[in-house]
Structures are given as C-alpha cells and as structure tokens.
Design brief:
The protein is an all-alpha fold. The protein has one domain (4-115): YheA/YmcA-like (YheA-like fold). The protein has five helices and no strands. Helix 2 packs antiparallel against helix 5 (80-112) and helix 3 packs antiparallel against helix 4. It is extended and about 55 Å long.
C-alpha cells in the first residue's frame, strides 16, 4: 500500500535542496543580519496581520491604517534586501504551484469524461 504522506514528507525535504529554496534561505539570512531590514520586515508583517484581522472582522480599513500601509509599502519598495526576499519567495511559490499542478492533474483527468 502506498503511504502518500511519506512521499509528501520526502518532497518537503527535497524542496529544501532546490536552488529556489536555497536562494530564499540565503536572502532571509541577509534580512536577519540587517537590523533595518529586519525591523521593516517585522513592521510589515505586523501590519499585514492587523489588516487581515480587520478584513476578517468585516470592518473597513481606517484612513490611518491605509496611510500606514502606504508608508510601509513604500519603505519595502525602497529596500533592496526585502525586494530580493519577496522575489525569491515568489520563485519558491511558483515551484510549489508547478508541483501542485502535477499532483492535481490526475484529478482533473477524472472529470474530463463528465465534460464531454
């Protein structure tokens, strides 16, 4: 019998060996070692959590929150290290998406017969 979870765990380990993952890991280390970038990342992360909480509560964003978001977004856009980290993160997620599509293609194939 196939244990798909063992395969998934192996795939998770294999992901760590990809150039995309290793580039992201290196860039995250650069962020950690740059106090200004680290503080900006932490501010951005905290703000994103706050915005998500507001949205999940069904409340509109306040003008103050919008202004803070614009300020943080501008600062992140001006940070070469954080822009690099975001770019590397996008590459990892693209790889994960590509792998996921290969997994789910067999499910799509099941439904092709229904579409005829």
């Amino acid at each position: 019998m196939v244990n798909i979870y063992d395969d998934a765990n192996k795939l998770a380990e294999d992901l760590k060996e990809t150039p995309e993952y290793q580039a992201l890991q290196k860039t995250i280390a650069e962020v950690k070692n740059n106090e200004e970038s680290l503080k900006l990342y932490q501010r951005m992360d905290q703000l994103q959590r706050k915005i998500m909480a507001v949205q999940q509560a069904g409340q509109p964003m306040t003008d103050e929150l919008k202004k803070e978001y614009e300020e943080v977004n501008k600062a992140v856009s001006n940070s070469e290290i954080l822009k690099k980290m975001i770019t590397e993160e996008q590459k990892v997620y693209k790889l994960i998406n590509d792998v996921q599509q290969s997994f789910t293609s067999s499910i799509g194939d099941l439904y092709k017969e229904l579409a005829k």
